[in-house]
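help with this:

***
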Amino acid sequence: MYYYISIRMDGFRDYDKAADAVRETYKMGRLHQTYDFALERIAEYEGRPKVQMKVWDAMALLENFIDSSDPDISIPNLYHLFQTAEAMRADNQPEWMQVVGLIHDLGKIMYVWGSDETGTSVSNQWAIVGDTFVTGCKIPDSIVYAEFNSLNPDMDNTVRSEPYGIYKANQGLMSCVCSWGHDEYMYRVLRSNAVDLPPEALYIVRFHSLYVHHREGGYTHLMDGFDHKMLDQLKLFNSYDLYTKMDMDKADLPAYYARVKPYYERLVSKYLGDILWF
């Protein structure tokens, strides 16, 4: 038996009614998330000694993490992962897709070794959470809180403020540098471990928060053939990621976790192995 929340298509991503903390998280991200900042975080990740953890121990680190950019729910992120995966399971989506649903936000555990200064802590989450965007080129006006785009120092750069910026037409999003967050971090974790997931899975993990791409069509000029091929898959994943969100009584959360975990233990072992380097 599976336990899922029925997909609802209304009332989500209403940033006009979002709490002040949500708006502030986006403001700080837009202010600091430059091309150079993204490269610094990539270099930090590549140079940092990796931490070996059991996947389930890593997931447990999200049991008390609440996404400060999310206007929809206020439960710990761990339970949203199961909501997403369970809806996919109910619709008989492929096992690998269910695994992606389960781990797509797991990169938020970077708060454990993060810092306030780099926006990677519980107190300052602006480089962990929120919608991502491609750095090194103009931030599309269709992005959420576009009024903060002018705060980004790259928008004063004669090259990086242009639609193509440092990139070439149709070079592909996989070769672009996105703003740093849990997507980019988890993509690199998966890429550096011997996981048994298809390229489509890693693509979804990397770009599921790039709403301005898969929801607004803001990067058609940078897309290559693989991006076009993946767009429907990304939108499908997004329908489960976004529209299964629902707040739950916090007293019910431990029992919910105990019910759904056994099914995913097999999938995690099959596709990820029991231990990953983070």
